[in-house]
Amino acid sequence: MPTSSSALAAALLPLVGGPANVLSTAHCMTRLRLGLADRSLVDEAGLRAVPGVLGVVVDDDTYQIVLGPGVVTRVTARFDALLGSSSPLAARGVQLKEEQRQRNATPLKLALRRVANVFVPLIPALVGCGVLAGLNGLLVNLGWLPSLTPALAAVASAFMALIAVFVGHNTAKEFGGTPVLGGAVAAVVVYPGVAKVTAFGVTLAPGQGGVLGALAAAVLGTYVEKWCRTWVPATLDVLLTPTLTVLVSGLATLYGLMYAAGEISSAIGTAANWLLTTTGAAAGLVLGGLFLPLVMLGLHQALIPIHTTLVEQQGYTVLLPLLAMAGAGQVGAAAAVYVRLRHDTSLRTTIRSALPAGLLGVGEPLIYGVSLPLGRPFLTACAGGSAGGAFVGFFAMLGDRVGATAIGPSGWALFPLLAGNRALPVTAAIYGGGLVTAYVVGFLATYAFGLTGVASPESRTDANQPC
Question: Would 114 be classed as within a structural domain?
């Protein structure tokens, strides 16, 4: 039985076909993502039986093993160390992975994954700076430590002030360009000197267009760089290619992309506010109910640019607290399964191990380990999320906006990041009320309807096991 990250990694490697079958490794907040040469070599039943494995997800281009937050980072490092030089991670492996992805991925899913790959690496900094911003706001409101709060504000805000550069760097890396050139082009968006530039009869403002402008600028820069390399002589490449890339892309950013991205960013903020103030309860009902399927498909990461844009504009994103209700509905559903299937010791063990992560807003372990395999509990969990979203959305219609200063955490972990247009206790009470609503509805819906068709404890094969 694996008792450490090293032991768990060692247990996983032979079950996925050994080092020669692994083409690539990566991880997100909860999943070890593997590119495999031959999926038929995977012992999926063996993987699911390994203590510490909370679920398995088969995606178009990766084989994903759900391990949970924190654990996945350590296991991935150990897994990479075990692979060493025995895995064909380079030429042939990358080629096979790309061929497989091109066969299976639709253009839309590929585009969404690329956008997600740009922003997911930024989440740790967004979380850390968001928590510090919330702490600083609390200290300012209480009048405590006035000599420290300016320094804390600087530490918390510096990353957001330069986030465009990091977005540009990651975008160029994802789209096959030189990362530092992507960062250089995107830096134009936040450079204070753009205030002296006029485009479309309007003087530009530093930061106009935000992360969307940085994303567009870096994508353009990547294509300009690739175009330059097709005709620039090798002897002049080191001089001309970066110069032309920055020049052409930089001017296009100043005289087109910043203005256009600024208009789009403003429209996103306006649309989000209108959605909640006019149709808050209905919007919350839909968003809270649909978020779990997005998480299941891995497409929820594509919402990060929208959240980031709202944080840049308003200081918080009003969408994240609504979406966080989906995880609360999942917790309520899992609790009902735990109560109803009291003789299923294996399932109850999975729930006990995954529930703490679920309370902190990490829903994948409960999705893939509990509700999705059972079927109906997944739908009743969505119903709980809808109820919680409607609760928070209803208060938005009354003028009480609940937002988050950063993205990433949800559940109880979101409390330190809460912000809004009311006092913090009011904002926290509304969010907490939404969580409780989602818990209760998810539990009751699952208890009453979610386990219909599931064998009763007395007729299950493990019914003779002790409670």
Answer: no
